Amino acid sequence: MKISVIIPCYNEEDTIRGVIEAIPKEVLEIIVVDNNSTDKTEEIAKSLGARVVKEKRQGYGAALKRGFEEAKGEVIVTLDGDGQYPAEMIMEVSNYLIENNLDFISCSRFPLKNKNSLVLPRRIGNLIFVIIVNFLFGLDLKDSQSGMWVFKKEIFNEIKLESDDMPLSEEIKIKVAKNPKLKFGEYPIPYYPRKGTSKFSFFKHGLINFVFLINLKIKNW
Question: Regarding the domain delimited by 3-220, which CATH topology (the fold level of the hierarchy) does it fall under?
Protein backbone atom coordinates (compact mmCIF):
# COMPACT_ATOMS: atom_id res chain seq x y z
CA MET A 1 0.00 0.00 0.00
CA LYS A 2 1.72 3.16 -1.25
CA ILE A 3 0.53 6.18 0.73
CA SER A 4 0.89 9.85 -0.14
CA VAL A 5 0.30 12.36 2.67
CA ILE A 6 -0.81 15.81 1.54
CA ILE A 7 -0.57 18.82 3.85
CA PRO A 8 -1.86 22.18 2.57
CA CYS A 9 -0.04 24.98 4.38
CA TYR A 10 -0.25 28.72 4.75
CA ASN A 11 2.22 30.09 7.31
CA GLU A 12 2.48 27.03 9.58
CA GLU A 13 6.12 27.34 10.67
CA ASP A 14 5.16 26.87 14.33
CA THR A 15 3.45 23.53 13.81
CA ILE A 16 4.57 21.84 10.58
CA ARG A 17 7.57 20.17 12.22
CA GLY A 18 5.39 18.33 14.71
CA VAL A 19 2.97 17.23 12.00
CA ILE A 20 5.69 15.80 9.75
CA GLU A 21 7.55 14.11 12.60
CA ALA A 22 4.34 12.35 13.70
CA ILE A 23 3.77 10.78 10.27
CA PRO A 24 4.62 7.04 10.22
CA LYS A 25 7.77 6.08 8.32
CA GLU A 26 5.82 3.59 6.19
CA VAL A 27 4.32 6.31 3.98
CA LEU A 28 5.68 6.69 0.47
CA GLU A 29 5.84 10.48 0.41
CA ILE A 30 4.90 13.63 2.27
CA ILE A 31 3.76 16.50 0.06
CA VAL A 32 3.51 19.94 1.62
CA VAL A 33 1.56 22.31 -0.61
CA ASP A 34 2.81 25.81 0.14
CA ASN A 35 -0.09 28.20 -0.49
CA ASN A 36 1.88 31.48 -0.61
CA SER A 37 3.42 31.26 2.86
CA THR A 38 5.63 34.16 3.93
CA ASP A 39 7.29 32.39 6.87
CA LYS A 40 9.66 29.39 7.12
CA THR A 41 7.09 26.67 6.43
CA GLU A 42 8.80 25.59 3.20
CA GLU A 43 12.29 25.59 4.71
CA ILE A 44 11.26 23.50 7.71
CA ALA A 45 9.26 21.02 5.63
CA LYS A 46 12.14 20.44 3.22
CA SER A 47 14.59 19.94 6.08
CA LEU A 48 12.40 17.08 7.33
CA GLY A 49 12.30 15.31 3.97
CA ALA A 50 8.94 16.51 2.69
CA ARG A 51 8.45 17.43 -0.95
CA VAL A 52 7.23 21.02 -1.18
CA VAL A 53 5.13 22.15 -4.13
CA LYS A 54 3.82 25.66 -4.71
CA GLU A 55 0.20 26.59 -5.36
CA LYS A 56 -0.28 30.26 -6.22
CA ARG A 57 -4.08 30.13 -6.29
CA GLN A 58 -4.98 31.06 -2.74
CA GLY A 59 -7.37 28.69 -1.03
CA TYR A 60 -7.64 25.44 0.91
CA GLY A 61 -9.30 23.63 -1.97
CA ALA A 62 -6.80 24.87 -4.55
CA ALA A 63 -3.89 23.68 -2.40
CA LEU A 64 -5.42 20.24 -1.88
CA LYS A 65 -6.23 19.76 -5.56
CA ARG A 66 -2.62 20.58 -6.43
CA GLY A 67 -1.53 17.96 -3.93
CA PHE A 68 -3.88 15.38 -5.45
CA GLU A 69 -2.30 16.00 -8.86
CA GLU A 70 1.20 15.52 -7.44
CA ALA A 71 0.48 12.40 -5.37
CA LYS A 72 2.08 9.14 -6.54
CA GLY A 73 0.52 6.87 -3.94
CA GLU A 74 -2.45 4.55 -4.39
CA VAL A 75 -3.86 5.86 -1.11
CA ILE A 76 -3.99 9.55 -0.25
CA VAL A 77 -4.13 10.98 3.27
CA THR A 78 -4.86 14.63 3.97
CA LEU A 79 -3.82 16.50 7.10
CA ASP A 80 -3.86 20.14 8.12
CA GLY A 81 -0.56 21.79 8.95
CA ASP A 82 -1.73 23.04 12.34
CA GLY A 83 -1.14 19.80 14.26
CA GLN A 84 -4.75 19.17 15.29
CA TYR A 85 -5.19 15.87 13.44
CA PRO A 86 -3.57 12.60 14.65
CA ALA A 87 -0.93 11.93 12.00
CA GLU A 88 0.22 8.94 14.05
CA MET A 89 -3.05 7.16 13.13
CA ILE A 90 -2.43 7.16 9.38
CA MET A 91 -1.55 3.47 9.14
CA GLU A 92 -4.40 2.43 11.42
CA VAL A 93 -7.00 4.22 9.32
CA SER A 94 -5.38 3.17 6.02
CA ASN A 95 -5.50 -0.48 7.08
CA TYR A 96 -9.17 -0.06 8.02
CA LEU A 97 -9.83 1.37 4.55
CA ILE A 98 -8.29 -1.66 2.83
CA GLU A 99 -9.61 -4.33 5.20
CA ASN A 100 -13.18 -3.05 4.84
CA ASN A 101 -12.96 -2.53 1.08
CA LEU A 102 -13.79 1.17 1.36
CA ASP A 103 -12.88 3.89 -1.11
CA PHE A 104 -12.97 6.90 1.21
CA ILE A 105 -12.80 7.44 4.96
CA SER A 106 -13.56 10.76 6.61
CA CYS A 107 -11.94 10.88 10.04
CA SER A 108 -14.64 12.09 12.42
CA ARG A 109 -13.73 14.40 15.30
CA PHE A 110 -17.12 14.04 16.96
CA PRO A 111 -18.01 13.46 19.66
CA LEU A 112 -14.99 15.50 20.78
CA LYS A 113 -12.78 13.77 23.31
CA ASN A 114 -11.21 17.10 24.29
CA LYS A 115 -13.64 20.03 24.34
CA ASN A 116 -10.70 22.46 24.46
CA SER A 117 -9.66 21.43 20.95
CA LEU A 118 -12.51 23.39 19.36
CA VAL A 119 -13.89 26.68 20.64
CA LEU A 120 -17.63 26.86 21.25
CA PRO A 121 -18.53 28.98 18.17
CA ARG A 122 -16.79 26.46 15.91
CA ARG A 123 -18.44 23.51 17.66
CA ILE A 124 -21.80 25.16 17.03
CA GLY A 125 -20.84 25.93 13.43
CA ASN A 126 -19.81 22.33 12.78
CA LEU A 127 -23.08 21.08 14.25
CA ILE A 128 -25.11 23.45 12.07
CA PHE A 129 -23.29 22.41 8.92
CA VAL A 130 -23.50 18.68 9.52
CA ILE A 131 -27.27 19.09 9.99
CA ILE A 132 -27.52 21.13 6.76
CA VAL A 133 -25.41 18.66 4.77
CA ASN A 134 -27.34 15.63 6.02
CA PHE A 135 -30.69 17.32 5.37
CA LEU A 136 -29.86 18.59 1.87
CA PHE A 137 -28.18 15.43 0.61
CA GLY A 138 -29.86 12.64 2.57
CA LEU A 139 -26.68 11.58 4.36
CA ASP A 140 -25.83 10.57 7.91
CA LEU A 141 -22.42 12.17 8.48
CA LYS A 142 -21.05 12.80 11.95
CA ASP A 143 -18.48 15.38 10.76
CA SER A 144 -18.93 17.21 7.47
CA GLN A 145 -15.95 19.52 7.98
CA SER A 146 -13.14 17.15 9.00
CA GLY A 147 -9.83 17.84 7.25
CA MET A 148 -8.33 14.36 7.70
CA TRP A 149 -9.32 11.89 4.99
CA VAL A 150 -7.90 8.57 3.83
CA PHE A 151 -8.94 7.43 0.36
CA LYS A 152 -7.99 5.64 -2.82
CA LYS A 153 -6.68 7.95 -5.50
CA GLU A 154 -8.84 6.18 -8.06
CA ILE A 155 -11.95 7.95 -6.70
CA PHE A 156 -11.06 10.80 -9.06
CA ASN A 157 -12.14 8.56 -11.92
CA GLU A 158 -15.68 8.93 -10.54
CA ILE A 159 -15.88 12.46 -9.11
CA LYS A 160 -14.73 15.92 -10.12
CA LEU A 161 -14.03 18.59 -7.51
CA GLU A 162 -15.00 22.22 -8.06
CA SER A 163 -14.24 24.33 -4.99
CA ASP A 164 -10.90 26.07 -4.53
CA ASP A 165 -11.76 27.13 -0.98
CA MET A 166 -12.99 25.67 2.32
CA PRO A 167 -16.10 24.01 0.82
CA LEU A 168 -13.93 21.37 -0.84
CA SER A 169 -13.97 19.56 2.51
CA GLU A 170 -17.73 19.01 2.40
CA GLU A 171 -17.82 18.69 -1.39
CA ILE A 172 -15.55 15.65 -1.55
CA LYS A 173 -17.46 13.86 1.22
CA ILE A 174 -20.85 14.54 -0.37
CA LYS A 175 -19.79 13.50 -3.86
CA VAL A 176 -18.18 10.26 -2.68
CA ALA A 177 -21.02 9.36 -0.32
CA LYS A 178 -23.63 10.01 -3.04
CA ASN A 179 -21.79 8.06 -5.73
CA PRO A 180 -23.20 4.51 -5.99
CA LYS A 181 -19.88 3.21 -7.30
CA LEU A 182 -17.92 4.34 -4.23
CA LYS A 183 -17.93 3.10 -0.64
CA PHE A 184 -17.77 5.80 2.03
CA GLY A 185 -17.14 5.47 5.75
CA GLU A 186 -16.20 7.48 8.84
CA TYR A 187 -13.61 6.62 11.48
CA PRO A 188 -13.37 8.21 14.95
CA ILE A 189 -10.22 10.14 15.81
CA PRO A 190 -9.00 12.44 18.59
CA TYR A 191 -8.67 16.13 17.77
CA TYR A 192 -5.94 18.18 19.43
CA PRO A 193 -5.91 21.83 20.55
CA ARG A 194 -4.42 24.15 17.98
CA LYS A 195 -1.09 25.85 18.49
CA GLY A 196 -0.87 29.29 16.96
CA THR A 197 -3.51 31.51 15.39
CA SER A 198 -6.35 30.02 13.38
CA LYS A 199 -6.98 31.41 9.89
CA PHE A 200 -10.60 30.31 10.01
CA SER A 201 -13.21 33.08 9.93
CA PHE A 202 -16.51 31.92 11.45
CA PHE A 203 -18.78 34.24 9.46
CA LYS A 204 -16.77 34.47 6.22
CA HIS A 205 -16.14 30.76 5.79
CA GLY A 206 -19.57 29.89 7.15
CA LEU A 207 -21.24 31.98 4.45
CA ILE A 208 -18.95 30.59 1.73
CA ASN A 209 -19.77 27.03 2.80
CA PHE A 210 -23.52 27.67 2.95
CA VAL A 211 -23.71 29.28 -0.50
CA PHE A 212 -21.63 26.44 -1.97
CA LEU A 213 -23.93 23.79 -0.49
CA ILE A 214 -27.05 25.44 -1.89
CA ASN A 215 -25.48 25.71 -5.34
CA LEU A 216 -24.27 22.11 -5.19
CA LYS A 217 -27.76 20.94 -4.31
CA ILE A 218 -29.35 22.93 -7.14
CA LYS A 219 -26.86 21.74 -9.76
CA ASN A 220 -26.61 18.07 -8.87
CA TRP A 221 -29.49 16.76 -6.77
Answer: Spore Coat Polysaccharide Biosynthesis Protein SpsA; Chain A (3.90.550)
